[in-house]
What does this fold into?
Amino acid sequence: MLIKSTPNWVIKENQATPEHIYLNRRTLMKGFAGGIAATSIGAIGGAAFAQEGRAAMAAVRNEAYQLDRELTPEDINLKYNNFYEFGSHKRISANAEENLVSRPWQVEIGGLVNNPMTLDVDELIAKVGGLEERLYRLRCVEAWSMTVPWIGFTFAKLASLVEPLGSAKYLRMETFGDPKMGNGIATQPWYPWPYVESITMDEVANELAFLAVGAYGKQVSNSMGAPIRMHLPWKYGFKSIKSIVKFTFVEERPIGFWEEISSAREYGFWANVNPEVPHPRWSQATERVLHTDERVPTLLYNGYAEQVADMYAGIEGQELFR
It folds into this structure.
């Protein structure tokens, strides 16, 4: 479902997109003419971001999702990442790119559903059909931010494949737990592997909730969470689990990786962005924009309040913003 209202962070596309990408779009559209109808609303083709080992992904640009700042250059997104399966620092990129084997990749979807299934990630992509591209903001709990042109599909499409039962209250997600592939698992045994996160069924159904299988016109990179990761743009980035192998619809609320580590004192279940609620060790009032290093005010729900705030009405007593 498209966003009907016009949020205050929407601006024209040619202001939101780096100029070299914007100017290349006409050429790229011609290159994909055989696979995308001439009436499609836009696309970024993989040819603009050629990188060895990552196949181009054609996706229709969903113009309902725009930005208030330039896209973060791909090279920065690839190299400035948290991915604890490959180490507890920002220099995991080379390690992840070399060691994560993202094809073939089995994805299990089950739990409280009518139609459980286990299939290869490319089979899953084919089943949901109709990949789209969305320009989203990402706000890290560490008070930095970036923007990404994700390619993927909504959580609602995933749910429609398996038909969750009425008793399902949460969707639990789990990443790979293989220490041979992720040496951070082997060298950091004190962490509660595998990485687990979860969201409510209301959040599953929200129009913003997105499963990304690509970025910058190609399959999503290893360091960004290949071959499938989630992105919830109104929440802090640690909620957006990478390299998912299992989706399980459950009745009881799971405990997430960082929630368990901190006993929910620093990283809770909800993790919604709020500039007025500080992290116990730093302020969340502003954020550093990667690439420009500009310090800008943080927005409530990362600027997506119009689309998500209603989900939390009536539960304000919970720790919604940590």
